[in-house]
Amino acid sequence: MKTLLQVDNIQKYYGNKGNVTKALDHIHFNVEEGEFVGIMGPSGSGKTTLLNCISTLDSVSSGHIYIDGDDITALKPKALANFRKDKLGFIFQDFNLLDTLTGFENIALALTIRKAPAHLIEEQIHTLAHKLEIEDILSKYPYELSGGQKQRIACARAMITNPALILADEPTGALDSKSARLLLESIDYLNTSLGATIMMVTHDAFTASYASRILFIKDGRIFNELVRGNDSRKVFFNRIIEVVTLLGGDTNNVL
Amino acid sequence: MYFKLSLRNVKRSIKDYLIYFLTLTFGVCLFYIFNALEAQQVMLEMTASQMEIIQMLSDVMSVVSVFVSVILCFLVIYANNFLIKRRKKELGIYLTLGMQKKTVSKLLLIEALIIDFFALVCGLVVGTFLSQALSILTAQLFEVNLKAFTFIFSSDAALKTMFYFVIIFIFVVCFNTYTITKYELIDLLHADRKNETLKAPKFAISLLLFLLSMSSLLVAYYLAFKNGLTNFNIEFLIAIFLGVMGTYLFYVSISNLLIKLIGNCKGLYYKNLNLFILKQVSSKLNSHHISMTLICLMLFLTLGILSTGLSLSKSFTKDLERLTPFDATFSRLDTTDAPPLSTSLKASGFPLDELTESYMDFNLYESPFHYSDFFTEDIMLRYGENFYNFREDTAIHAIKLSDFNQLRMFCNEVPLSLQAHEYVVTSSDMNLWPSIQSILKTQPTLTRRTIELVPKFDTPIDLSYETNFFSSNMLTLILPDHLLEHAPISRQHLNLNYKGDKTTTEIAFKESFDVLFKTSDEFFIPPITKIESYESSFGLSTIVTYIGIYLGFVFLIASAAILALQQLSEATDHTKRYELLRKIGVSKSELNRSLFTQIAIYFFAPLSLALIHASVGIAIANDVVKHFGQSNIAVSTLYTCLFLLLVYGTYFLATYFGSKHVITQKK
Which ipTM score applies to this complex? Predict the structure, then answer.
């Protein structure tokens, strides 16, 4: 299998001389094509910073990130925008759908900014919508949709351009458990049936249990790694819980 | 304590307050300038009658100022409302911390007080400087010299300005307090998270409304054209009502229609950010159709007032030379049996011989012909009711040939000879010339009972038989003496030229008439003098020009400021949208382009319809302007457009850069 994402010893500092916060401290890992990687960690561990660096929204202080062979830390702003447009798909915690556009148009926008030919757009969207079972909500505006429905539209938007990597930042964070489960089924479908490579940040063990491999981050360092292998999701979930307990229940800090 | 917080708030949100501050400053500045007119005249060398005009001008200005202050009040409340909206979250936090709504209102009051105070000071300072410039303009308009340049500060005008702004301030504070008490805490805190609810009406309804709007606009245009600007009758009111309604419906329906139209054009719709731009603009238009309508109407007024005001003022003065061939003219109406005016005047003790170098009596007779004998039916219909009052049963005025020749000799011109069956047409109103010429060419024979006359020339003569400040001679015939032998005298005129120095004689002349006016009730129509005509024409034109500039400026600033405020506040509300677009890979330049397009469309939307309204309005007004004298409205329209481009363009650019700053500010 091909290595799609290579994070090579990156560091990220905030602040200035005398008052430096290390948000990412020598992080190093690879993601293979078709993998579903979860990133877990407590608040302030640096997982969102990591995601921002990979999604080119933020720059690293040192180290390199290679996606599909391109070193994204060396790209100019204009090239970065193009890179995001062509290679990445985003799913956000608060959906980030445009209020003024219908579900269909929100998905279409991802295609129009890539200058896709107009006649293909509708066909492509309907095909994907059929697979994700969101056809009946396409013509609705975000304010008419539930959180889960909005997030599934957002999934479709992330997927429609066939990105090399889909980045999901706490996708279930604003959803109730039923909607979260439905959404995760959709994301799982993207991964297993459509072959999307997904990297998902979450601090919810249940959400994380859908991933095939999980990286745990604490204080800017990789703390642990879990691979699901052939475990059932239930077994995998319990293993995650164990690590989370360890992560959160660091006895050294408890007097 | 609260003062400190308020002061810091002002400092922190100085950028947000900028347009509010600018608009207030502009308002104060304009207000001061136009109210300080009277004080400014000190540095000008003016005659008594010019002083009177200035006095009148400043009276008119103070009336207009009340109107202006109402507009400014609305504008300031509007701007303030946007500011509160922008800071909802912050206000929400104050309330959560346990502050009372009353205290929050007080906080806002102090903030408003600080801003208003600075705006007042800045406005007065700028206004004081600019009013010196206006004095120079006044000097030019009145064609008088500056005595000596003195820097003038009118405390009256400043006090008046302050007074009006205190009232506006009180209104703003009341409104603020009301708004604050209306809000729920939860809405304040979550202000930035609220989704917009888009309720796009059905396409069929929009189409219906659009058609309704078009038809009511067309009917309004038709009625306005038919009526002109001279009679304010019920039809004119209907035209205004339909115009306003049509404009409103236009903005209600247009966005939905555009979406449907462009949505069907897939190539365009699915290109780059077009989809996003279109939906953004249409949602804004949808939620702002009332302010769009208002702005459109204000721009229309600005364009109309400025271009007609400026050209009207020019047309007032342009024809004066032609229309005032004598130094003065006495007139008397309905005087069939009266002796000539000069005789009556002398009999009443008026020192005619002492004051004048030469004078001549002159009668206008009622000719045997009626207007309908000369004009064709369609001309009668066109002009009959409107400004000329050509009625079927009214006799055309006529001059005896011998009187006309005397008049010519008086003006050192060659006399005219006429045969018994000939007539000549005269008119000093250039607008009528084409109609008269066409008649003289096609059906020139004038018939009434047994009399039949043919014209000597195929074109009218430009004749002003009296001194007046407008084209008083619409249509007058010159007829052979025998035809008017027993005709009733319609008007008596006495034309005269002064002896010696014109200005000093004018004063003596006026004084003598005042004496006469008091002692005798025979001469109740005051004489019209050349100097007076010039001055009153200047006065009228100055008043019209000043009102035009004043109101035009206020309307223009109001509309541009409203648009700018809406755009800026929306740019803030929509920061998230742009951030998302940036995340999914839209480059910065493309984002800026989309922002530019949006603002451009938004600024152009009210302007486009206003331009159409204005061209119709100006075409109608042109007819009226022509009536006062020949003038080319095109030049002043051009000036107006330049002026509009400048102010509107400045606000547009300020908005674009402001919005760009807002959306790129956050990472």
Answer: 0.83
